[in-house]
Amino acid sequence: MSGQEIPAPPLRTPYKMGRFDLSHRVVLAPLTRQRSYKNVPQPHAILYYSQRTSKGGLLIAEATGVSDTAQGYPDTPGIWTKEQVEAWKPIVDAVHAKGGIFFCQIWHVGRVSNTGFQPNGQAPISSTDKLLTTQLRGSGFDVAQFTTPRRLRTDEIPNIVNDFRLAARNAIEAGFDGVEIHGAHGYLIEQFMKDQVNDRTDQYGGSLENRCRFAVEIVEAIVNEIGADRVGIKISPFATYSEAGDSNPKALGQYMVEQLNKYGILYCHMVEPRTATVGEISLCLHNPVPMRNLFKGTFIVTGGYTREDGNSAVAENRADLVAYGRFFLANPDLPKRFELDAPLNKYDRETFYISDPVIGYTDYPFLEGTA
Ligand SMILES: Cc1cc2nc3c(=O)[nH]c(=O)nc-3n(C[C@H](O)[C@H](O)[C@H](O)COP(=O)(O)O)c2cc1C
Q1: CB–CB of 42/80 below 8 Å?
Q2: Which positions, given as ranges, span the membrane (predicted)?
């Protein structure tokens, strides 16, 4: 020993996120894994999430449906029934037992769906009745057939806001530390926000204020239900997933952040513009720093980050925390590997969305001696 202390890498430094004391800044990004048969979380998720838990680490659970109209993929979990809430409890308990902080990402796919996923074979709901034509969905690469959506009537919108509120209440009942509203990737909330999709003429369409009204009402309802200090939101103003682009993403992002500040929510999780298109190619088209500077709470970035990028983002104060998706999927001990600068397991895209309870799910190896 030389006696010289090597400073901890920025991702390894502690961070106080509201009431939560994080011991490092490597966050598990929400990852849909399609292993929640019939929309009910399964016991194999106990092992999956606890493998990815570190003491003082933040985990965000996979996108979780708020109602029976919220799904568009096979076997994604929900949180609207008693059975689902009960099924989440042992998973949340396992994360807490290892000292993790666990948020539930709550979700409605809107038109990124088809009649096969809907109750009584009805049409999916959306801000619009425009059919989604691309075969590429959200964060995945699976091919799907979409059904022409049904445009929500103005008087129905409060019911959907209420579904989000109840889902947040249920998440707390299940033991989660908070919720992340899924306001990204072309799903229902973005179908209202983005002008490529929203063609409404009521108070939920047209101006920026009107297009963001649905998102803001959801934030307000959830803040009133569970408290602002347990609420985060993920947004992707720059992304164009599922034909949900915006003509002025910068103005949209800044307007949303200003609204979030009014409610004092805990965090804003921003999909980096460089993953504006799906795939491995990173295009740095826009700059999220103005939003980072504007937002008063914790700022999480995600999208194509390596260990080095994450360390620089924190060191340069471009983010408080960095959420890792594919690396964390394949490396259950990612924070440890980053700390040691150890090699990473490669992720296998073929097993991202298969329904096997082990393969590509809980069988990624740990560094020797750290499991
Ligand atoms: C298999 C898979 C599933 C995903 N599921 C979700 C999801 O449920 N909710 C969400 O907001 N993002 C989802 N994403 C996006 C990730 O949260 C993350 O933002 C994205 O993968 C970029 O981070 P990365 O480059 O570190 O993988 C998913 C990504 C992958 C690869």
Answers
A1: no
A2: none
Task: Indicate which atom in ligand 1 lies nearest the CA of residue 234.
Answer: 11
The label of the residue with tokens 């491995």 reads 280
- Over 80: is that where the pLDDT of 277 sits? no
Q: Distance between CA 252 and CA 231 in Å, rounded?
A: 20
- 171-203 pLDDT, tens digit per residue, is 999 999 999 999 999 999 999 999 999 999 999
187 catalytic residue (yes or no): yes
Pocket test for ligand 1, best of 139, 280, 331 (most atoms within 8 A of CB): 139
Q: Which of 15, 187, 241, 353 is catalytic?
A: 187
- 109 token code pair: 């796919």
d(CA 333, CA 306): 15
305, 313 in Cβ contact below 8 A?
yes
Distance 35 CA to ligand 1 centre (A): 15
